[in-house]
Design brief:
Layout (H helix, E strand, L loop, with lengths): L7 H16 L3 H17 L21 H9 L8
């Protein structure tokens, strides 16, 4: 499989699209999206600057159970890295 090296423009475009998409979600869905994206966002920062992403009762080491189940039920995997 060929590795893809996204550009900074690609990254900015993706973040803009995620922001627009998240605005269409209900609050519980936004919280789940934040939990799904949080580990990747945290990697972009050095130290402990990212805390909770505005979520309440989120445990950084675990995805919410509902999200874990949905990912497993759909047999989702990340590939192409």
């Amino acid at each position: 499989m060929t590795q893809i090296e996204p550009s900074s423009d690609d990254a900015r475009d993706l973040l803009d699209k995620l922001k627009a998409f998240s605005a269409t979600l209900e609050p519980p869905q936004r919280a789940l999206l934040a939990a799904l994206l949080a580990p990747g966002v945290a990697l972009a920062y050095e130290g402990d600057e990212v805390v909770g992403f505005g979520m309440v009762d989120w445990i950084p080491d675990h995805l919410p159970r509902a999200l874990e189940r949905a990912v497993r039920e759909r047999n989702l995997h990340i590939s192409g890295w």
